[in-house]
Amino acid sequence: xxxxxxxxxxxxxxxxxxxxxxxxxxxxxxxxxxxxxxxxxxxxxxxxxxxxxxxxxxxxxxxxxxxxxxxxxx
Length: 74
Prior knowledge:
There is one protein chain. The protein is mainly α. The protein has one domain (2-60). Helix content is 50%, strand content 0%. It is elongated and about 80 Å long. The protein starts with a helix and ends in a 14-residue tail after the last helix.
């Protein structure tokens, strides 16, 4: 076991460092999500999901109905 560990010590250390970085990024993203912060940068002009994430609050209320009640959106 000791011979194997000494042979692959560099690989083990690199893997542990990579795992620590991935864990730190994951924890940071989860904390930001729980705090309500966005990680997108709010530059919707260059986003594939443009218009769908920041308009979620507006779309949650549903479409506006015209005062005549004929179902047309205003």
